[in-house]
Predict the structure.
Amino acid sequence: MQPPAIDAHQHFWNPERVPPLGRDDFSLWAQQLRTAAEYPDVNAKISGLNTALDRSDWGGTERRPAIEVALRVFGPDRLLCGSDWPVSLLNDGGYQRIWVETRRALELVALDDAPTSLHATARRLYRLDAIGREAVLADSGREAPDGSH
């Protein structure tokens, strides 16, 4: 059985790869994101936000406006996170820093919803629990209780 296609767009659909943080066209971008969110099978990925900023001393606070819009229009169940590594290195965004500041920004916006966007949505969309279970069963030569492999 083929898993369903996943429509999870990175960088929030910006043609320049990232939301126009701190620019005049941010409201246009926000409207376009709202339009995309009208399609229930579309999901969004928080990634690449540090490269939207001209400063290398960015943090969770500077990324907050884009995350607020995304959470509002998609909700935590249709929003997931990505590191954008190695591109994130272009604006002083080491892997650890990306995750620390993404978590910080999500917690500033919606503390209770942060775990969903940080890991639960990706687990569900990418079927990580099922894939892990299938790998264990394949290694053991057993079938799942429901007869699937």
Observations:
- Residues 7-140 form a domain with the TIM Barrel fold (CATH 3.20.20.140).
